[in-house]
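Dear Dr. K.,

Following up on our conversation at the group meeting, I've run the structure prediction for Ribosomal silencing factor RsfS from Enteractinococcus helveticum. I'm pasting the input sequence below exactly as I used it, so you can double-check it against your construct before we proceed with anything downstream. Let me know if the numbering doesn't match what you have in your notebook.
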Amino acid sequence: MAVPEPTLDALHIAAKAAATRQAENIAAVDVADRLGITDAFFFASAPTERQVKSIIDEIEDQLREQLQLKPSRREGESENRWVLLDYGHFVVHVQHDEERENYALDRLWSDAPQIDLPETD
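The predicted structure tokens came back this morning:
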């Protein structure tokens, strides 16, 4: 696996933060060998736009508090159907359940190595 330890730490924090806001289908994949522009993608989803916003805000807050990380870009916030936080070495995608199903990023990256995340139940 090509994902560096600091990125793994950040993904674990993101997973825990998302879980505190009842995110669903939390996952992360190692895309470093396939993309070259980032090491990992983090995915989570929620049934409402309000919950998508809550999850994304919590992830951003926890990464800032614990690791002093700020995203270089934040996109999709106007509708909160698919919000993206770009941290350079990893990208956070929080999607409304319908977008998660329609765009099927999990299937698109199904051949990429899965990253073990902490239990979030």
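Two things stood out to me. The chain has a mean pLDDT of 94. The longest strand covers residues 24-30.

Best regards,
J.T.
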